Amino acid sequence: MNAQPIPMASQREYARLLSRALPAVVQNEEQHDLYLEQLESLLEREETLTPAERELAGLLTLLIEDFEDKHYRLPPASSSEILEFLIGQHNLKQKDLTDVFRTPSIVSEVLSGKRELNKGQIERLSRRFHVSPGVFFPPRPEMDKEGADFVSRQPNRRKRKKAAPVVKGPAGAQRTR
After folding, report:
1. Which of 10, 15, 155, 164 ranks highest by number of CB atoms within 10 Å?
2. Taking the chain (177 residues) in consecutive chunks of 10 residues, what is each chunk's mean pLDDT?
């Protein structure tokens, strides 16, 4: 989608395309499939699209992505689930990771969820599997399904204890009231 407005000469064509496609927020799978088909037919001719067709393709993309973000979001995975996935993808066995974890028992404990990954293990795993270290960080439980941070929206309700004042006595001795 362009950052610039549609050229005046293409506005009529865009209006005609909109009246045919009638794009709206995707409500169900049937509508999602229809928009995907329309987008795919536009993308097949990507090199020859008019500015109006490019704009419609951009709009359809946004509508499709919005629906997919809401309905096809994968649940967050734990670091042990991610590690299991990577082991499977690389056709490895637990014993193949002793160079990363130093002992087979640590590999087993990490995969069972009894032990968390430490910084060194994350660094070695990210190099081994050629992935960002961030994939091994556990999901943040305080995130809601839209990814908004609950913690930042909540007022701090904890009352802080006031420190007891320190009073200096004779000869520099300190005592607490």
Report:
1. 10
2. 72 93 94 95 92 94 93 82 93 93 93 92 94 80 49 40 49 52
